[in-house]
Amino acid sequence: MEKASIYGLTKEELIAWFIEHDERKFRATQVWEWLYIKRVMAFSEMTNLSKDVISLLEENFIINPLRQVIIQEAKDGTVKYLFELPDKNMIETVLMRQEYGMSVCVTTQVGCNIGCTFCASGLLTKQRDLTAGEIVAQIMLVQHYFDERGQDERVSHIVVMGIGEPFDNYDNLMNFLHTINDPKGLAIGARHITVSTSGLVPKIREFANNGLQVNLAISLHAPNNDVRTSIMRINRSFPIEKLMDAVDEYLEKTNRRITFEYIMLSNVNDRPEHAQQLADLLKDKKKLTFVNLIPYNPVSEHDQYSRSEKADVLKFYDVLKKNGVNCVIRKEYGTDIDAACGQLRSKQIKKASKTR
């Protein structure tokens, strides 16, 4: 069997592992610092460890489980990475240069089973969940992208919005969050981390009780059940009424703002009446909700959809603002590369299948 990535262990799990192997607790702290502060990529570089400890680590773990396949760099500084996993599956990770820092969008699954009819991520069905180590490794390789170039920059923000449904891989997601948030490691603040879900109601309720101050975003994309069911299969299991009940519980327990993601699809969900329905849906939650209007990145396999006209997006925005809804039209990133989640991966898989 392939050795697991040591990135998959939280600090508490790493301490427990060393104790289990008759080693002192402080060894875990040393290894943790080598991994996340000095960011070495080989156990042999951990120079304050004995040869026996290094051998023990090498016998049980690898550090980096990912192989870089493709890097696409956009004119605006966005970088999209295609990584290969040990089982030859491929995933995407995106670096976005924001005014407030370096933000990385990570993937949590190989493929996706949520079934959103406009999305490139679901073109290939879910093969498996990523391990916590494979999710952490995405952050580490992006950070190495800076380190290797001598750039004094660090990953400062995380969005868990790449391929897959994060809450469908909940335990690995939580291990990932605890690892990157650890103050003696990468120290990425909880309020600089956002997790997105398409609306898995039981997990939203569970997430409300996790104690982390991590931000939550919900992919809503429609203001009523008819439209949402037509574009998002998950709405059959968790219609808007159930989703909003879970949202109310989350807001009551955490008092933290939720962002609603809303992809603008021409003549599907972008009419002024849709905007009014959305405003009505959120009218009792306006103080703790925020709407992110997202220009659609067309996907050739979903040619029934096109992006909303700019004038329609502005009309939609105006209706929300007049109703007191906090909202923004999201800035686009990487428009000159394969911008939509899953596009680069899908393209590479098709290319590989043609050469076989």
What does this structure look like?
The protein is an alpha/beta fold and 356 residues long. 35% of the residues lie in helices and 19% in strands. The chain folds into two domains: 4-62, DNA polymerase, domain 1 (Orthogonal Bundle), CATH 1.10.150.530; 67-354, Alpha-Beta Barrel (TIM Barrel), CATH 3.20.20.70. The strands form three sheets. Strands 3-4-5-6-9-10-11-12-13-14 form a ten-stranded mixed beta sheet, sandwiched between helices. A two-stranded parallel sheet has the order 1-2. A two-stranded antiparallel sheet has the order 7-8. Helix 4 packs parallel to helix 5, helix 6 (201-207) runs parallel beside helix 8 and helix 9 runs parallel beside helix 10 (310-322). The longest helix is centred in the middle third of the chain and has 17 residues, at 132-148. The model has no long low-confidence stretch (mean pLDDT 93). Its main location: cytoplasm. It comes from Enterococcus moraviensis ATCC BAA-383.
Q: How many separate structural domains?
A: 2
Largest sheet: 10 strands, mixed
The first-level CATH class name of the largest domain: Alpha Beta
Enumerate the strands of the largest sheet in spatial order, edge to edge or round the barrel.
Answer: 3-4-5-6-9-10-11-12-13-14
What is the N-to-C order of secondary-structure elements (H for helix, E for strand)? Answer: EHHHEEEEEEEHEHEHEHHEHEHEH
CATH superfamily name of the largest domain? Aldolase class I
Rg, please? 21 Å
Structural class by helix and strand composition: alpha/beta
CATH architectural type of the largest domain: Alpha-Beta Barrel
